[in-house]
């Protein structure tokens, strides 16, 4: 990676001896011109970063005001992911380095276990990985922007096709036109409606991730009941029974979470088997997170398709199934990923499916370790 100027590095280290070693070791092996500023605390590092742009931050995880993962979590909370960070840790036998990378660092070094060459290599590779990450994010932004513009431009003509095909169908019915012609026009109307759903889903998918995720304490049970209420027509049409248990509270973005619940419950009703749909929404606290589940008695899913169903535009239904555009579960996964949670499915063909997803537990509910039952079940038909 070539720079047209000296590389600016901020070393956040409270030990003078370690700071001296870092300067000497990097100067010995790192051949590119560079400047190193030091800060003895997080507060001082934030002040320096307000005054100057740095190409790389090397962050000691043991500082006067914080230790371990608290240090890097505080750093990213205050500064955001706008700088590449290599962490220094004194704990070689622990997984703190890998944990720091999962939080957002690009590399880690263990104090006392690296020399000049290893330090220089970490800096070079760290800067290169950061460049690649920035290029990938820029490409993703451009792709999302293109998808958004294309979907937005398609929305108007698709709505017009739907509108005028409906009007034309009414005119043909009024003059007793040939039934086959009316049937064909009905196909056009149905396909236009399907295209409109696709455009709306593309718009939603393209902007998801652009909005900030606001994590607040959320009454998930109330949201689940609202999602069922939104599906009242579908519940009545299919004769569905939906049971919502008492659910633990979680930290989530309320507007995004109701989309996930409505999609999972709606799918559980839509893809039912011969018997009327029976859907259960449950939740259990596991450590610092809540695991929610939406189970049904429907058709079930072949395990070989478990990963595929979360991919955009992947549908396992037959060609005669007009509903859905294959983006619902992909959007659900993107929402849960944005909450740093997980989403997965357990199912067998003919035996129903259970979709699980996790969210951060709301503060003050850490002792609720048992599954929450159906003591106050509300049924919807």
Automatic annotation (TrEMBL):
4-aspartylphosphate, modified sites: 60
Gene3D superfamilies: 1.10.287.130, 3.40.50.2300, Histidine kinase-like ATPase, C-terminal domain (3.30.565.10)
Record-level Gene Ontology MF annotations: phosphorelay response regulator activity; phosphorelay sensor kinase activity; protein kinase activator activity
Nucleotidyltransferase recorded as keyword: no
Positions of the Response regulatory domain: 8-126
Reaction(s) catalysed (UniProt annotation): ATP + protein L-histidine = ADP + protein N-phospho-L-histidine
Keywords (A to Z) from UniProt: Kinase, Phosphoprotein, Transferase
Domain annotation Histidine kinase: ranges: 149-363
PROSITE patterns: HIS_KIN, RESPONSE_REGULATORY
Matches recorded under InterPro entries: BphY/WalK/GraS-like, CheY-like_superfamily, HATPase_C_sf, HATPase_dom, His_kinase_dom, HisK_dim/P_dom, Sig_transdc_His_kin-like_C, Sig_transdc_resp-reg_receiver
Swiss-Prot/TrEMBL GO biological process terms: osmosensory signaling via phosphorelay pathway
EC number: 2.7.13.3
Database matches in Pfam families: HATPase_c, HisKA, Response_reg
Name the UniProt record assigns to this protein: histidine kinase
Originating organism: Pelagicoccus mobilis
């Amino acid at each position: 990676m070539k720079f047209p100027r000296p590389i600016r590095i901020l070393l956040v280290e409270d030990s003078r001896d370690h700071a001296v070693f870092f300067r000497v070791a990097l100067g010995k092996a790192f051949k590119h011109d560079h400047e190193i500023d030091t800060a003895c605390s997080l507060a001082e590092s934030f002040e320096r970063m307000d005054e100057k742009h740095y190409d790389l931050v090397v962050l000691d995880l043991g500082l006067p005001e914080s230790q371990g993962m608290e240090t890097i979590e505080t750093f990213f909370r205050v500064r955001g992911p706008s700088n590449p960070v290599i962490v220094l840790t004194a704990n070689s036998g622990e997984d703190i380095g890998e944990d720091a990378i999962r939080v957002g660092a690009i590399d880690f070094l263990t104090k006392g276990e690296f020399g000049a060459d290893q330090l220089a290599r970490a800096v070079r590779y760290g800067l290169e990985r950061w460049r690649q990450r920035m290029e990938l994010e820029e490409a993703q932004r451009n792709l999302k922007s293109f998808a958004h513009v294309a979907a937005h431009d398609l929305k108007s003509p698709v709505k017009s096709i739907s509108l005028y095909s409906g009007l034309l169908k009414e005119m043909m019915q009024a003059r007793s036109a040939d039934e086959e012609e009316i049937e064909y026009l009905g196909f056009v109307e149905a396909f236009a409606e399907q295209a409109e759903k696709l455009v709306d889903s593309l718009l939603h998918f393209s902007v998801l991730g652009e909005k900030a995720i606001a994590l607040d304490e959320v009454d998930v049970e109330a949201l689940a009941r609202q999602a069922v209420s939104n599906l009242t027509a579908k519940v009545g049409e299919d004769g569905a029974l939906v049971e919502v248990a008492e659910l633990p509270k979680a930290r989530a973005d309320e507007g995004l979470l109701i989309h996930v619940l409505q999609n999972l419950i709606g799918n559980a009703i839509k893809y039912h088997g011969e018997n009327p749909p029976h859907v259960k929404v449950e939740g259990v606290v596991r450590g610092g997170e809540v695991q929610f589940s939406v189970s049904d008695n429907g058709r079930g899913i072949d395990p070989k398709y478990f990963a595929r169903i979360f991919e955009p535009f992947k549908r396992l239904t037959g060609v005669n199934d007009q509903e859905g555009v294959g983006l619902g579960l992909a959007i659900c996964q993107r929402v849960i990923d944005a909450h740093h949670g997980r989403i997965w499915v357990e199912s067998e063909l003919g035996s129903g499916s259970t979709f699980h997803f996790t969210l951060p537990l709301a503060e003050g509910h850490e002792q609720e370790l048992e599954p929450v039952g159906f003591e106050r079940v509300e049924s919807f038909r």
